[in-house]
Amino acid sequence: MERKKALVGILMGSDSDLSVMEAAAEVLREFGVPFEMAILSAHRTPEQAARYAAEAAERGIKVLIAGAGWAAHLAGVLASKTTLPVIGVPIDSSPLNGMDALLSTVQMPPGIPVATMAIGKGGARNAALFAVQILAVADENLAARLKAYKADMAAGVLKKNEKIDP
Ligand code: RP5
């Protein structure tokens, strides 16, 4: 079976980030969005990270998701080399529990935006949902699936009331 071309690139600074970034992959699988994953570091493999970002658009990638911990510069470095939207996920891998990664990811200088999500798995999940929302602007089928996802989520929350009714 031929593999569909990836529309989303999920990058992470280390294999130690994989357990968090799997949450993003899971959402993209749920929505049937083809993606690829790679370990590339802004500090340990700077040339390869920059090249990945520079070539991503011409390979058909539409959105990049980047997760990193500590002084998390991966999302920013990728954003500096592409016009694709870059979504950053701060990872809580350091003794500062991700606050360092959050500030490193979100505090981009004017001109180079990174859409920064929450710290950790919840942020990784939201990064993928945000990527799906970006793709859904030009894809009615995906937009319909997002609508159904939100309706299911609301129904799930409301159903919990049955359990707490006196
Ligand atoms: C960051 O440093 C990575 O994103 C990771 O969260 C953190 C630690 O990496 P390892 O020392 O576990 O490889 O660049």
Set out the fold topology.
Elements: E1 8-12, H1 18-30, E2 35-39, H2 46-56, E3 63-69, H3 74-80, E4 86-91, H4 99-106, E5 115-116, H5 121-136, H6 140-164
Parallel strand pairs: 1-2, 1-3, 3-4, 4-5
Q: Might you state the CATH topology name?
A: Rossmann fold
Percent in helix: 40-55%
When the domains are counted, the total is 1
What hetero molecules are in the model?
Answer: 5-O-phosphono-beta-D-ribofuranose
Structural class: alpha/beta
Reported CATH architecture = 3-Layer(aba) Sandwich
pLDDT averaged residue by residue: 97
**Runs with pLDDT <50, length 5+?**
none
Note the run of SSEs as H and E. EHEHEHEHEHH
How many β-strands, per DSSP?
A: 5
- For the CA atoms, what is the radius of gyration? 17 Å
Envelope shape: globular
Can you list the strand order of the major beta sheet? 2-1-3-4-5
Individual helix count: 6
The main β sheet shows up as: 5 strands, parallel
Q: How much of the sequence is in beta strands? A: 15-25%
Report the top-level CATH class: Alpha Beta
By oligomeric state, this entry counts as single chain
Q: How far apart are the termini?
A: 54 Å
Keywords: Isomerase, Purine biosynthesis
InterPro entries: PurE_ClassI, PurE_dom, PurE_prokaryotes
Protein name: N5-carboxyaminoimidazole ribonucleotide mutase
Domain PurE: 6-157
3D structure, described in words:
This is N5-carboxyaminoimidazole ribonucleotide mutase. Pathway: Purine metabolism; IMP biosynthesis via de novo pathway; 5-amino-1-(5-phospho-D-ribosyl)imidazole-4-carboxylate from 5-amino-1-(5-phospho-D-ribosyl)imidazole (N5-CAIR route): step 2/2. InterPro entries: PurE_ClassI, PurE_dom, PurE_prokaryotes. Keywords: Isomerase, Purine biosynthesis. Belongs to the AIR carboxylase family. Class I subfamily. This protein is α/β, with parallel strands linked by helices and 166 residues long. It has one domain (8-140): Rossmann fold, CATH 3.40.50. Helices cover 48% and strands 15% of the residues. It is built from six helices and five strands, in the order E-H-E-H-E-H-E-H-E-H-H. The protein has helices at residues 18-30, 46-56, 74-80, 99-106, 121-136, 140-164, and strands at residues 8-12, 35-39, 63-69, 86-91, 115-116. It has a five-stranded parallel β-sheet, with helices on both faces. Helix 1 packs parallel to helix 5 (121-136), helix 2 crosses helix 3 (74-80) and helix 5 (121-136) crosses helix 6 (140-164). The longest helix is centred in the last third of the chain and has 25 residues, at 140-164. The chain is globular and about 60 Å long.
